[in-house]
Design goal:
Oligomer: homodimer
Distance between the termini of chain A: 40 Å
Number of strands of chain A: 3
CATH architecture of the domain at 53-149 in chain A: Orthogonal Bundle
Helix content of chain A: 55-70%
Largest sheet of chain A: 3 strands, antiparallel
CATH topology of the domain at 53-149 in chain A: Arc Repressor Mutant, subunit A
Structural class of chain A: mainly alpha
Largest interface: A-B, 78 and 77 residues
Number of helices of chain A: 7
CATH superfamily of the domain at 53-149 in chain A: Winged helix-like DNA-binding domain superfamily/Winged helix DNA-binding domain
Strand order of the largest sheet of chain A: 1-3-2
Chain lengths: 178, 178
DNA sequence: GCCGAATAATAAAACCTTTGATTAAATCTG
DNA sequence: CAGATTTAATCAAAGGTTTTATTATTCGGC
């Protein structure tokens, strides 16, 4: 049980440490390093996405998921919904729902695919193209501000470690979206 | 414009590289290292959270956000809604809505705070306590599988780099939830 | 060529999140 | 101490996600 009396009020910064030491007392068999890694990774990504979405995307009338779809269509060119889902890491149902909004806003257009009448071909409208380019420029400046707190070398090592973690996902047979 | 013809079908793994080289052609002034860092960070975290939620939390009747609230209450003890929001990194409105579900499911209870009649004190019910402990054990085993693809040293360095990135958020005046 | 199985997209229901009111209680200020 | 301001929580509207079920097509084996 090990109820820890907090000597000083816990804040967001110290909560990870607190949670880990509390867990050490309550569940001695827990893997604390793994716990710290996942907590920290989630916390950083969360803060980063919130900052980007609220300072870059929403002021321009886009959501973060909407930005991701435009981003994929910008780089991959016109593509089927299924492919956009794969490349963006969203489910097909999520893409379908999201494209309703993007189509209504005139940023993306739907068209029946030529070779398969079940499939839908998505493409950027001219307005969508302008939107993604303008938004990406602001997005990238913000990314630069975040990334700039690390040295070149640190950025490179961080990316390498993250890629290794991502490759490990296959080894542990992580569940992925259908 | 630099329309890149794809020599072979793009997949999720190669999309980051493709997006970066396409951006290099389309927007020469872009910071590609920052772009790669953010794309990779988001991609890994997304995959990790999806795997944890779909393999650990949903089968036990919890959502990922629900798990986070129980996790905070488990470690911090009974606390006001405002505090749970701060410690979990959610907005107060999100906590309020989420607790409706958790309360309905009998995992969390609401009570008016003693010192301030505006405030609500949240605490785990006995069922909530059982739920968080059982779920956390499975959650931690899954974390261990993911983290296990890195060496001890790599895990340590990854956490350090993530913490440095998180500290940088203050320097760049990142927006945070109210 | 035809019929059962697989596949693409969408719909439906349940949940969660965000921003911007609204309500009620506490606190500050003159 | 009264009035204005701030603060805690919740509500409301709009959007996004998930899983499961449906519909329309295409594919595969005989």
């Amino acid at each position: 049980m090990a109820a820890e009396p907090e000597p000083r009020p816990l804040d967001f910064l110290s909560f990870v440490d607190h949670a880990i030491s509390h867990t050490a007392g309550a569940l001695p068999q827990a893997d604390l390093d793994a716990m710290r890694l996942v907590l920290t990774l989630h916390r950083v990504t969360n803060a980063l996405v919130y900052d980007l979405e609220s300072s870059v995307h929403r002021p321009r009338g886009l959501s973060w998921p909407g930005f991701r779809v435009l981003f994929v269509l910008w780089h991959a060119g016109p593509a089927e919904a299924k492919r956009v889902a794969e490349l963006s890491g969203m489910s097909r149902a999520a893409v379908s729902a999201l494209v309703n909004t993007l189509e209504r806003d005139g940023l993306v257009s739907r068209r029946q695919a030529d070779h398969d009448r079940r499939a839908v071909r998505l493409s950027l409208t001219p307005a969508g193209n302008d939107a993604i380019i303008g938004t990406f420029e602001a997005h990238n400046r913000r990314e630069q501000a975040w990334a700039g707190t690390l040295t070149d070398d640190e950025r490179g090592r961080l990316v390498e470690l993250l890629e290794k973690l991502m490759e490990g996902a296959d080894l542990v047979a992580a569940k992925r979206r259908v």
